[in-house]
Specification:
The complex is a heterodimer of chains A (145) and B (162). With 145 residues, chain A is mainly α. Chain A has one domain (6-144). Chain A is built from eight helices and no strands. Chain A has helices spanning 6-31, 39-61, 76-85, 88-96, 99-102, 106-116, 123-126, 132-144. Chain A is globular and about 50 Å long. With 162 residues, chain B is an all-alpha fold. Chain B has a domain at 2-112: Helix Hairpins, CATH 1.10.287. Chain B is built from five helices and no strands. Chain B has helices spanning 2-31, 39-42, 52-67, 80-130, 142-158. Classes of the chains: A mainly alpha (145), B mainly alpha (162). The A-B interface holds A 24, 27-28, 30-33, 35, 120, 123, 126, 130, 132, 135-136, 139 and B 1-2, 5-6, 9, 12-13, 16, 19-20, 22-24, 26-27, 30, 52, 55-56, 59.
Chain lengths: 145, 162
Amino acid sequence: MSPKDRLLSTWDTVMLIIIAYACFSSAYYVAFDFPKGKPVLLILEHCVFAAFTIDIIFNLMRLPESMEGPNAKKDHLAIVKAYLKSGWLVLDCLATFPFYLFGEGEGASSLGMWFKLLRLVRLPKIMNLLDLARFNKFVETVVSG
Amino acid sequence: MKNVYKVFRLILLTVIITYFTGCAFYFISSFENDSESNFITVNNLESNSYTNIYRFITTCYFSITTLSTVGYGDLFPITNIEKCVGILIMLAGVAFFSFIMSSFIEIISTFNQNLGVEDQTFELHNWMTLLTRFRENKPLPNSLYRQINQHFKYFWSNNRLS
């Protein structure tokens, strides 16, 4: 899929909000422990896990900008290779892996917390939400209906 | 509308930075909990009578007072690592707050400029509409209208007395 695909761009916008939530919540959970006896937060955590997994699958199909062009080939192997080479695949998988599901003991859950910190690597992406051009586009679509 | 969004963005940026420095500071100071007195124990944050929210608000309060170079001094770093992190926060705070201040000043000054010019052109257009009375309710010729407009625009932008 090309980055200009409609489905992909919609997903990217949704993902921005989810990343924002994940970054804020995991920073809180790492510093102050995960609040016990709050099922809603656990469900949200499951949702974030699902969204990150879907995002990895989308990324495996996304054509990188460097490979874009008039004669872009839909070579899935090349896309996966480029994704692997950039190092994001390993990082995404480690940050997504649900350690909290297995973390019954003390040590395991704290290990999961450390890997959760990897989500913060995506923090600069949140700044896209605050982009002025994006806001202008949003206003235009709202005004024109 | 754009200015409101710009101000909102600055506030949001401040909130985000405060949030993460607060969380990071608490994490670092809880990391070496084997030492006897540190930021958490001296401020009695680890006692069970306080909720996580209270601890969170206290550390965020500490981080914003340090970042904004206010520094009340009611909360302060104690161990070596805490002090080092505190130094880093202060250094970053100077850069960060000067950025926020300059952005605010820019927004306010451009806002004032726009408001002043708009106010005057509004009155000029009203006055030109009034002139139609002397032409039997026909509007001014377009060329004259444009010329008057141009003259006053030039006058306002180059008026040294105002």
